[in-house]
Amino acid sequence: MPTKDYSEIRRTFKALILGQILSLCLCGTGVSSQLLVNQNVNAPAAQAFSNYFLLCFVYCISLACKNDENGLVVVLRKRGWRYLILAIIDVEANYMIVKAYQYTNLTSVQLLDCATIPTVLFLSWLFLSVRYLASHILGVTICIIGIACVIWADALGDKGALDGGSNKVLGDILCLAAAVMYAICNVAEEFLVKQHSRTEYLGMLGLFGCIVSGVQTAVFEQEALSKIVWDGTIVSYFALFAFSMFIFYSLVTVVLQKTSALMFNLSTLTADFYSLLFGIFMFKDTFHYLYFVSFIVCIIGSVIYSMKETQVRDADEPRRVCPCLFVCCCCCGCCFEEGDSTEGSIDVSPSPNERMQMGLNPRGSMSPCPVHGGSQQLSHL
């Protein structure tokens, strides 16, 4: 077997295994949250605070021990405001998705998975200059079909379709808002961990997350916390949630460094299947065979997506959305006719004069293809 093929298989296998570990961590947070709900505990901000406290305790101490430009004080002075904004988005996304369960049903909340994936795809293309090939689009489509199987299974079994929905419109709005916020966090996290370090990102997120979630807990959940009987069972459920989220956040940065935000979201789609298994044995939930179909389909989609690495667009390459879904048009002119025809596409790149002023190659110049390599004529762009 050629060395290149072996490395691709090894990379795909690692990404798949890490994704399943992340799914199990998400399952752990869901199980612990359900156990807390069964104990009449309703404190989502306090649960989030426990996770951010662990992140701050572990990674902020590591940053504080550094005296160079990567130290805590220097990072706070240079980039602290970025992490503050990101922490606010992350905390509120977690809070909103938990609150959504009070207004809508399980089926609607599961649509969050489908809403996050295309949002991450678009933001990665727009801000991270990612070029997606046909295999990536195919993998995403297969994964969305897989999660649709879960939603259809819930609809067939009337699970969450007829009950638990005091204000479904508000709940669906919360789900959609949380999906967009999760997508922003994922793409920003991918950029930050690749530009700086995992320790810096997790330390800053933990520090500001502690502050934001702590204030939110003190303002909105003080009465709820005072009613909790803090016995060993409740403490153990909080600990399970905190450690599951801590491991999840820590491993997410590894996945984002090695793959991408989109691959992370595709891999964790199988968390619903693992939650189902725990629900069957712990909460006596019933299941539909489509859950198993969903698991297999999501795995297949994740493998197809990770078979080829995404490419980064050249700085002087136009951002053009074409009907063939980001297939390499720089080499074939499949969507654009000669004479600079752009019928059926959306050009969001600078004009030729603007490109000249920016010091970039004008149209018609020779530039290496970001997908296939080598110099290609870009006159059709």
UniProtKB/TrEMBL annotation:
Select a single GO molecular function from the record's annotations and give it. Answer: transmembrane transporter activity
UniProt main location, coarse: membrane
Q: Where in the cell is it found?
A: Membrane
Keyword set, alphabetical order: Membrane, Transmembrane, Transmembrane helix, Transport
Q: Where are the transmembrane segments?
A: 49-68, 80-98, 110-130, 137-157, 169-189, 201-219, 234-256, 263-283, 289-307
Keyword Electron transport in annotation: no
Protein task: Putative solute transporter.
PANTHER family for this protein: DUF914-RELATED, SOLUTE CARRIER FAMILY 35 MEMBER F2
Q: What is this protein called?
A: Solute carrier family 35 member F2
